[in-house]
Design a protein that fits this description.
The structure is a homodimer of 187-residue chains. Chain A is an alpha+beta fold and 187 residues long. Chain A has one domain: IHF-like DNA-binding proteins (HU Protein, Chain A, Irregular), CATH 4.10.520.10. The first copy, chain A, contains 6 helices and 5 strands. In chain A, the strands form 2 sheets. Chain A has a 3-stranded antiparallel β-sheet with strand order 1-2-5. The first copy, chain A, has a two-stranded antiparallel ribbon with strand order 3-4. In chain A, β1 and β2 form a beta hairpin. In chain A, α1 packs across α2. The two termini of chain A are 43 Å apart. Chains A and B meet through α1, α2, β1, β2 and β5 of A and α1, α2, β1, β2 and β5 of B. The first copy, chain A, binds a DNA duplex (30 and 30 nucleotides) through β3, β4, α4, α5 and α6.
DNA sequence: TCGTCATGAACAAGGGACAGCTGGTGGAAG
DNA sequence: CTTCCACCAGCTGTCCCTTGTTCATGACGA
């Protein structure tokens, strides 16, 4: 579907073609500006469009095979929401009457699971912490990680969204482990 | 920025809040419907929103470390366009007068490079094929790859967008190589 | 306008998935 | 018509995705 076709489809809903052009331009422009400004655009049921920092790396020239250094950059990223993914995967078909975004019927999705999880949530935490070390007999690191997460959980509120990965180690060897730890501490 | 703020920002451009609500609803709804229908929404300068089939695989439960089978599914995917990426990365700042999407000034960007590439495009193909083996003395695979691509180039026009990955090999060992070859042949 | 609830994010470990390098060409948009 | 953008190839390093839980916030009914 082209941009022109998109405008045409929107015109089919708005009724006017001129309004559709303005609508498409305005919506996309606002989203782009917000992302450029570093703000994440989050629409329930549709998805989140945000900007994330990508660490520098070494890529490869397809023709010559030579290693080229790619410096760290910021790229926009879109994460589809649950409803969108469900509709695309076919789990839930899209409603034809109302808009396909931000429509949350009262109890259309897994009502039993939700009501069951809510009251048992308090003691579920204890169950998880107890079960983890038992199964993780082969890996002791997991238990420590869980404990650390519980401790840091109240400290981390929302983080800054942008500024998660700040590993400048491009010329280093791997820096993967360092980046992991960096993410936790949120340097 | 949530949906309400998005509507407000769009209202700032359209002038009316009601029109902004309809605009946001219509645009998102149209995009969602198109993607659900299997059609890719491609807006030049903004990005492409499409649905891709993800082959089944084996993931891992982070708590227990157990391998869990993930059956194949279809998920929406967004790929940002060049202009969008440039603006986010800071290479090109967004224009404040016009919309940030699909704005192509006549010759504002890298005029010398463009005019040089356009007329030489026809014979540039021969130049590339000749230059590649010369530089690729250390890697012969690159030259073969280029030749193969040239042969398949006229055959592949647009492909089906959706239906690229159809490797059902879930219980196999890796299936990565097989999937690669599948992509070329477009089974 | 307030209350309730669904929805999204984070955290962890590890491996599969995938973005993207370069450069030419087709298509698209103005 | 002109000018630009997206795509595509093999190969890598980066990143996302998986489950399950809790917290926080947004969305919606009354």
């Amino acid at each position: 579907m082209n941009k022109g076709q998109l405008v045409e489809a929107v015109a089919g809903q708005l009724g006017s073609r001129t309004a559709a052009e303005d609508a498409v331009d305005a919506v996309l422009d606002v989203m782009v500006r917000a992302v450029v400004a570093g703000e994440a655009v989050q629409v329930t049921g549709f998805g989140t469009l945000e900007s994330v920092q990508r660490a520098g790396r070494y890529a490869r020239n397809p023709q010559t095979g030579e290693r080229v250094r790619v410096k760290k950059t910021t790229v926009p990223r879109f994460r589809a929401g649950q409803g969108f993914k469900d509709m695309v995967s076919g789990t839930k078909q899209l409603p034809k009457s109302g808009p396909a975004v931000a429509k949350a019927p009262k109890g259309s999705l897994t009502p039993s699971k939700t009501v069951a999880a809510t009251p048992t949530g308090t003691k579920a935490a204890a169950k998880r912490s107890a079960a983890a070390p038992a199964v993780t007999a082969k890996k002791t690191t997991a238990s420590k990680a869980v404990a650390a997460r519980k401790a840091t959980a109240p400290a981390t509120k929302k983080t800054a969204a942008v500024s998660r990965k700040t590993a400048p180690a491009v010329g280093k060897k791997t820096a993967a482990a360092a980046k992991r730890s960096t993410r936790r501490t949120t340097a």
